[in-house]
Amino acid sequence: MKNIGIPVTAPKETCDDAKCPFHGKIKVRGRVFTGEVVSKDLNRSATVIWERKIDIPKYERSETRRTRIRVHNPPCINAQVKDMVKIVETRPLSKTKHFVIVEVQKAKTEVKQWRE
């Protein structure tokens, strides 16, 4: 298992995924985010969402916006829906995927429902 350059715990399982940062040839670089997995595909993909605050100076208020990103979910990590995960930017893996999950921080806790 190789060191990916970010202080995260390496997965205990192994995989043969070429797009895995731990067992494949993908290098991670750039931005790092933490968010919640809201959906998962069979094709090693997932959707991660997180909230951010935006100030509106004209009205002296702030609003909450959500960022929704498609990410690669390696089989050795295999994040499930409602998991809090850490994602890192990488080279484009497909048309919509530019991030990969590197760590599951909290597994299936009671978190807000995004689809109410």
Description:
This protein is an all-beta fold and 116 residues long. The protein has a domain at 28-106: OB fold (Dihydrolipoamide Acetyltransferase, E2P), CATH 2.40.50. The protein is built from no helices and five strands. It has strands at residues 28-40, 45-56, 61-72, 84-90, 99-106. The protein has a five-stranded mixed beta barrel with strand order 1-2-3-5-4. Strand 4 and strand 5 (99-106) form a beta hairpin. The mean pLDDT is 89.
> Helicity level, as a percent range?
under 10%
Tally the beta strands.
Answer: 5
Report the order of strands and helices. EEEEE
Mean pLDDT: 89
Beta-sheet strand percentage?
A: 35-45%
Task: Quickly count the helices.
Answer: 0
Largest sheet: 5 strands, mixed, barrel
CATH topology of the domain at 28-106: OB fold (Dihydrolipoamide Acetyltransferase, E2P)
Give the key terms.
mainly beta
Quick recap:
The chain is an all-beta fold and 116 residues long. The chain is built from no helices and 5 strands.
Which SSEs are present, and which pair or pack?
Blueprint: E1 28-40, E2 45-56, E3 61-72, E4 84-90, E5 99-106
Parallel strand pairs: 3-5
Antiparallel strand pairs: 1-2, 1-4, 2-3, 4-5
